[in-house]
Amino acid sequence: MAEYELYCFAQSGNSYRVALMLNLIGADWKPTFVDFFAKGVQRTPEFRANLNEMGEAPILVHGGKKLSQSGAILTHLAEHSGKFQPRDEDERLEALRWILFDNHKVGSYLGTYRFLRNFAKPPGDPTVINFFKARIDGALGILDKHLAGRSFIVGTGPTIADLSLVGYFYYPADEFGFDVAAERKNIGAWLSRIKALPRWGHPYDLMPGYPLPS
After folding, report:
1. In this structure, are residues 118 and 175 in contact, taking their beta carbons and an 8 Å threshold?
2. Residue 102 backbone phi and psi in degrees, to 5
3. CB neighbours (10 Å) of residue 169?
4. Could you tell me if 14 and 57 are in contact, meaning their C-beta atoms sit under 8 angstroms apart?
5. Per-residue confidence at 134, pLDDT binned at 50, 70, 90?
6. Residues 6+ positions from 188 with CB-CB distance below 8 Å
7. What pTM, to 2 d.p., does this model score?
8. What topology does CATH give the domain 89-195?
């Protein structure tokens, strides 16, 4: 029996953050598929009662713990494994600052924008999609400027702040209609550094549910 069980699905950047960290730390883990698109299982009373009252993925089961929200899960994994931890109090606060920025300004906008373009039925209203694109451009400008002259988000090595922020950036550019790595050189270089870490894996390889049934 695996030490860690991750409830996830391949299209979820929130889930990918956790799957990637589990892989990078060499954890004994297994993915369990959450059928988000076909069955909406995460919204059922059973799922909310037994796994996550918020009706969301990812969920990490570790021993007697059931953890949700990717930032909390990454923090738990860093503390438990001793890997990808910020080095001191100042770095911990800085990492938290960027994780919160990611959850509110980067991943949330990218995830919603991508969903409306690719998965929503009917597709999202163009006015709404354009609104999200403008917000994404602003957030990416902040991130790209922060990465100028530095290799990672906090300190001199990768931390959970990096693993949070990369959540949506490795999905195919055609799912977004623009190529973040090509258009933002500092983000592109940083993504290459994360991709070069031992045991890095693509979201569609690490988690079940890709491709979606036609």
Report:
1. yes
2. -60, -50
3. 25
4. yes
5. very high
6. 180, 181, 182
7. 0.97
8. Glutathione S-transferase Yfyf (Class Pi); Chain A, domain 2 (1.20.1050)
